[in-house]
Design brief:
Elements lengths: L1 E2 L2 E2 L6 E5 L6 E6 L3 H20 L2 H17 L1 H12 L3 H21 L6 E4 L6 E8 L2 E5 L7 H13 L3 E4 L5 H14 L6 E3 L5 H10 L3 E7 L2 H13 L3 E5 L4 E5 L5 H13 L9 E7 H16 L19 H16 L3 E4 L14 E4 L6 H4 L6 E7 L2 H9 L3 E2 L1 E5 L3 H10 L4 E4 L14 E2 L2 E2 L12 E8 L2
Parallel strand pairs: 7-8, 7-10, 8-9, 10-11, 12-13, 12-18, 13-16, 15-16, 18-19
Antiparallel strand pairs: 1-2, 3-4, 5-6, 6-22, 11-21, 14-15, 17-20
Bound molecules: adenosine-5'-diphosphate.
């Protein structure tokens, strides 16, 4: 693990990281104990004053070097992501590019943090606002984007002048450890970024959050864990950013360009094997085109080559672990029992590794598990709808609100639907919303705060107001 610029073993032993393509152990990594948690927070706290007061340009240039180094190591990082997480090499290369862009974007934002000067309404004084870094921040990240979910938090935190403790997911700690080393090479001073690994996350995260020196938590993961961390953060009134689960509707209206809709669906559904919180979870297609859409999507999904993640020819790798495959299989089986019909896939292959095949379900009842719960796998349930009103009603009938997709040739219609979707992000005639220059985040139980865009850095800054008379 990386603490205060030094590599160290874990005081609680080690744990194994598996290769999802075979289920076999790839490596053993340190399990952080209480001493390591305290040392990492102490290091971040000691490094804070000088990093927070470093010239913004200096922080920007470190981030810019991190961008260059990440791209220079694209192949190595992509291979490691594929190996420990199971996405195809093509997807992993895409992830490295996306992850690197957060360093570039926030190197540009680091030098544009402003304050304000206003005149008080009564005219007696001026209202001067300053922005300063919140302080030591804990970053807890998921396994589905082992690199990008870290850089999406780390880059704005560093740009703002915060120091951090990163706790990557237990399934994919290797990429985060390599990133720690890369950042040191880029010139991040010792203690500014610390990386702790563990397979007992509740224990470690609880310890770090209880430490008085920690001021902020940024979390990406399940809504269930997010809720429990919000409760813990309340005890110390910590600032929080939360990127939680999604259940994205993908709406295809009858005037849509079906070729474009199927292309978009392949990206929205199949990127990273469907293991993305923005993944299209429910396809609501106007009845006139529903059959044709489902057939074309099934043909495209059937053509995907499945295999070990790091095989260059693989287009759909394994899921990350056994628990995920079981969850997907259960949702599909229960949905079929509820009346859904299998157009493609639908059953687990025998053999080693955590594979689940590309699957298309039709005639899916709106209350089937695949339409209500986050699938997080390569399963596309298609529901035929009468019109845009019904599509909207079904799309909004959920407690989550992260992303949605709408396909229509009529831009006014598309914008009308977009405005009424209860989500934080809409892809309008586009199957990909993620962009470091755009505010990523959800409404309802999908989260709090935004990552990326002009908004992202503000999650790591607080405002101080000085009443000024002159
Ligand atoms: P998923 O269900 O997709 O694996 P999780 O929410 O379980 O998502 O995991 C996201 C991150 O939260 C990971 O880094 C994981 O180690 C961490 N985590 C899981 N459970 C807890 C917990 N009880 N307390 C703190 N962190 C947790």
């Amino acid at each position: 693990m990386l603490v205060a610029g030094q590599w160290r073993a874990g005081s609680a032993g080690t744990f194994g990281v598996a290769d999802p393509s075979t289920g076999r152990e790839l490596a053993r990594v340190p399990r952080a104990g209480a001493d390591d948690a305290a040392a990492a927070v102490a290091a971040a706290s000691a490094a804070l004053p000088s990093w927070a007061s470093a010239a913004p340009r200096e922080r920007a240039e470190v981030l810019r070097r991190a961008f260059d180094l990440t791209l220079a190591r694209r192949e190595q990082l992509a291979f490691l992501i594929s190996l420990e997480m199971g996405k195809s090499l093509a997807d992993a290369r895409g992830e490295v590019g996306y992850a690197a862009e957060f360093f570039r974007w926030f190197s540009e934002e680091a030098v544009r943090v402003g304050g304000e000067l206003r005149t008080a309404p009564a005219g007696a004084h001026r209202i001067l606002t300053l922005r300063r870094p919140i302080g030591v921040t804990l970053l807890v990240t998921p396994w589905n984007f082992p690199l990008a979910m870290v850089t999406r938090k780390l880059a704005p935190a560093l740009a703002a002048g915060c120091t951090v403790v990163v706790k990557p997911a237990e399934d994919t700690p290797l990429t985060a450890l390599v990133l720690g080393g890369l950042l040191a090479e880029a010139g991040v001073p010792p203690g500014v970024v610390n990386v702790l690994t563990t397979d007992r996350p509740a224990e470690l995260v609880g310890r770090v959050l209880a430490d008085d020196r920690v001021r902020k938590l940024s979390f990406t993961g399940s809504t269930q864990v997010g809720r429990s961390l919000l409760r813990q953060a309340a005890d110390r009134v910590l600032g929080v950013s939360m990127e939680l689960g999604g259940n994205a509707p993908f709406i295809v209206l009858d005037d849509a360009d079906l070729d474009a809709a199927v292309d978009g669906a392949m990206v929205a559904k199949m990127r990273s094997g469907g293991q993305a919180c923005t993944a299209a979870n429910r396809f609501f297609v106007q009845a006139a085109v529903a059959g044709e859409f489902a057939d074309r999507l099934a043909a495209r999904m059937a053509a995907l080559r499945t295999g070990p993640a790091t095989d260059e020819r693989t287009e759909l790798g394994p899921m990350v672990n056994e628990r995920q495959v079981e969850g997907i299989a259960r949702r599909v089986e229960d949905s079929v029992a509820a009346g859904a019909k299998v157009l493609l896939g639908g059953s687990r292959p025998a053999g080693l590794g955590y594979y689940y095949p590309a699957t298309v379900l039709v005639d899916v009842p709106a209350d089937a598990p695949v339409a209500r719960e986050e699938i997080f796998g390569p399963v596309a349930p298609v529901v035929a709808v009468r019109d845009e009103t019904e599509a909207l009603a079904l799309a909004n009938d959920t407690e989550t609100g992260l992303a949605a997709y709408v396909y229509t040739a009529d831009l006014a219609r598309g914008l009308r639907v977009s405005e009424r979707l209860e989500v934080g992000m809409v892809g309008l005639n586009r199957g990909l919303v993620s962009d470091p220059a755009a505010p990523f985040g959800g409404v309802k139980q999908s989260g709090l705060g935004r990552e990326g865009g002009f908004e992202g850095i503000h999650e790591y800054l607080e405002t101080v107001y000085v009443a000024t008379a002159w």
